[in-house]
Prior knowledge:
Chain A has helices at residues 6-19, 27-34, 38-55, 78-92, 107-110, 113-127, 142-153, 211-221, 276-282, and strands spanning 58-63, 69-74, 98-99, 103-104, 134-138, 157-160, 171-177, 184-190, 199-207, 226-236, 247-256, 261-266. With 283 residues, chain A is an alpha/beta fold. Chain A folds into 2 domains: 6-74, Winged helix-like DNA-binding domain superfamily/Winged helix DNA-binding domain (Arc Repressor Mutant, subunit A, Orthogonal Bundle); 78-282, Rossmann fold (3-Layer(aba) Sandwich). In chain A, helix 2 packs across helix 3 (38-55). The model of chain A has no long low-confidence stretch (mean pLDDT 92).
Amino acid sequence: MEKWKRSARLVDMVHQLLNEPYRLIPLTAFAKRYHAAKSSISEDLTIIQEVLHAEESGQLETMAGASGGVRYMPSMGMEETKTVLAQLCHKLTNPERILPGGFLFMSDLLGDPVLLHHLGRIWAKIFGTSQIDAIVTIETKGIPLAYAVAFHLRKPVVIVRYDTTVTEGSVVTVNTVSGSSGRMKQLSLARRSLPKGSRVLLIDDYMKAGGTVRGMIDLLREFEAEVVGVGVMVDSIVPEKLVDGYVSLTTVTEVDEKEKRINVEFGNLFDQGVYNNENHSDQ
Amino acid sequence: MEKWKRSARLVDMVHQLLNEPYRLIPLTAFAKRYHAAKSSISEDLTIIQEVLHAEESGQLETMAGASGGVRYMPSMGMEETKTVLAQLCHKLTNPERILPGGFLFMSDLLGDPVLLHHLGRIWAKIFGTSQIDAIVTIETKGIPLAYAVAFHLRKPVVIVRYDTTVTEGSVVTVNTVSGSSGRMKQLSLARRSLPKGSRVLLIDDYMKAGGTVRGMIDLLREFEAEVVGVGVMVDSIVPEKLVDGYVSLTTVTEVDEKEKRINVEFGNLFDQGVYNNENHSDQ
């Protein structure tokens, strides 16, 4: 394509920006690609920014200077967030999810790439300003959630494992006690998978007592990492947690194995500072 | 936003279409959202389609009728594919990846959400017309790749596990022999995680002899599933494979532990039918 009309330019720019959140694209790269003046590119970006802002689906950040450019930071408005989470709550209350011991079958939800993509965008809004270096999770069920966040924040995923395999090189291992079952578990992380002093966001699917997250925090101390946030898709109202200050998207308030009943509500995410203004405007 | 100009409409439509590949959006939904005539929406879609086509980054498919609409099918052109895979090959040849036994450290690559997103788009091009019902992979390293494909094809991910946990319900288990090590392994899949008769795409990170994929195919037979494709990020030129007709993105042709040398080439993907026309136009 030699000559680009504004309409074609807009389509291509939105594609490039949204396809790789947080990638910094120099304005000169756009100007060169479209054979357009920088002032035209700036006008295009204003149009894109206005639509994103109106739809609360993120924003463009323009950085000046030689190493500057523009990048897309994904977000999700309160209304859309509540719609996504209401659907998740509804799916979680299906009594067929109840497994022996009061566990919940969730593999279908964790296998749904559309749901995960939406949840990733919600976490990107909550943790987008936390200067995160890496997303840390634990095998197996936390992995898809971690990637959904990682895509939206353009940060690497690091996976803590229950056992060590030959293809990881030297590993650091800690012992931890599962808060709910009281059983001992070993958590391991390959030495070369996380640089010392990283700022990390912990992501997991489910928190009951928080023993696993507690163990992950202990393990990360060996890497001198700073845990700047913890996010779980589902937590439970009991028992008391071994971890403070985590963000849950949904909360299981009741699992009645005998009566085949599950109750699920929104988690504590709307108590986070990032939603404060929007809470006020609701009232 | 009450009134939408064409430029704003284009930005919003591209966002909606590209944010959820393969989601069918009724034209009436667009018309209503933008207070625009269907003919204007059709013109907008033509503009979007022209840009996607010119950049070889996918296409729009419009389906007529009451249940019709438009959806975005992602793709990637030959040139961009070769650029992505050349970077992957380059990273794989780093001699520091060599672990004892000739294994390769790849966790950093499998933790890179941008690389994974690109690889997902490549596989979406190769398998996009295969009428896939589910993407099946095996814990742990195949999971991020499977999700990258699943996002681009809007299909669920199903994870085969080495051990069964209490939160899966009833499971089907098969025994298999690792082709390279000769060791016995147990592969399990929750009964309720895959409907009988599904058409599945198998995705994994690495294939040496193919024993694990062979075992997964045996396991899927218990679900009366049809394996319509197998894709691996990396395969090796030796030993001979236990599986035919799989697609590899890259191929390790040499790992010299002593000399600290790795050679990696493009895989067999360009031999696939989907690249035929493009191969010809190259000549």
